[in-house]
């Protein structure tokens, strides 16, 4: 009898709650129950579309047979456009810019080029689960830092200070944040810069949602605040330009060149080894960044109404509280109960067909329970979903009275 193939241990702790919850949702959908999906941040499955000129520029590149390999760091017109975008963000000392298969690949490459087995990076909690998946793959030591729900989900500076050790290589920021929708203040960012400089840390600035801002808020790119701090700013077309399936992202390396030179070369070794990012889609970068931006105005009009509805209806449910998001299209309401949020979410899906993601899939302070909602669907769907959540929550507490009091 043949032996079973044993997978690598580094895969044991890899989870991705956003997609993992779909397994259960698919089983429930097979029963014929109507499903309301509030789980995946894909604008294209709702009533959002990319700018026409972005799609046309990519199509034109395909017709012109720009279908072979691209340069490892990206085509020149795209890299130049990203550099001009960096300058508009206040990043005027970029030493290297590279185009990748989504911002996810840029993040993976940059962590791989920096962190050895047994070392760690400070990872926001709650935060995007990609980072903990890469952490497992690279056999890094987990080192989460907490966002403060009582302070608008801003990074807890004292907690960050307490977590830095001699094996810490970097600190990750997601701004605007996924899953909370928080937008970081200048003061908060400057405090993080001071810690990074003091301890020689690289800042990984995930700014993929930097144009999706509410209430006239302004995004501050952390790399723009200090020319000495070692920083990689990540961006892409997926969210701001509504083409997540194009898988086009980038990284911008800034800081002191003499400090970063060897690290930049290590990044480029990996970039060269994997050949290139998607080629024709790169011809959409310059038109996107420098063309008509009116799709953002339309998108934020929709999202503002849906954000306000989300906050109002969730906060009206006894036992649920929701901090008002200032960017992106997520909210991370708290369940004031003792039962695990994963159990609550599973029962919610089975009973109502409303699909959300348990907070434990993003990390959270021990003893707290949350779930993430995506408020991309239209108001009618959101109203039905939130009413169903409210009705279900009361039934849930009646069925599990031990959950009360969290």
Instruction: Pick out the low-confidence regions.
Output: none
| Beta-strand percentage range | 15-25%
Mean of residue pLDDT values: 95
How many helix segments? 12
Helix content: 25-40%
Query: What is the CATH third-level topology name of the largest domain?
Result: Aspartate Aminotransferase, domain 2
Shape summary: globular
Largest sheet: 8 strands, mixed
Order of helices and strands: HEHHEHEHEEHEHEEEHHHEEEHEEEH
How many β-strand runs? 15
CATH superfamily of the largest domain: Type I PLP-dependent aspartate aminotransferase-like (Major domain)
Strand order of the largest sheet: 2-9-8-7-6-3-4-5
Strand-pairing-aware structural class: alpha/beta
Chart the SSEs and their pairings.
Elements: H1 17-29, E1 36-37, H2 52-63, H3 76-88, E2 94-101, H4 102-112, E3 120-125, H5 130-137, E4 144-148, E5 154-155, H6 157-163, E6 168-174, H7 186-199, E7 202-206, E8 231-236, E9 248-254, H8 257-273, H9 285-290, H10 294-315, E10 320-321, E11 330-331, E12 334-335, H11 341-352, E13 354-355, E14 357-358, E15 369-374, H12 379-399
Parallel strand pairs: 1-13, 3-4, 3-6, 6-7, 7-8
Antiparallel strand pairs: 2-9, 4-5, 8-9, 10-12, 11-15, 12-15, 14-15
Helix pairs in contact: 10-12, 11-12
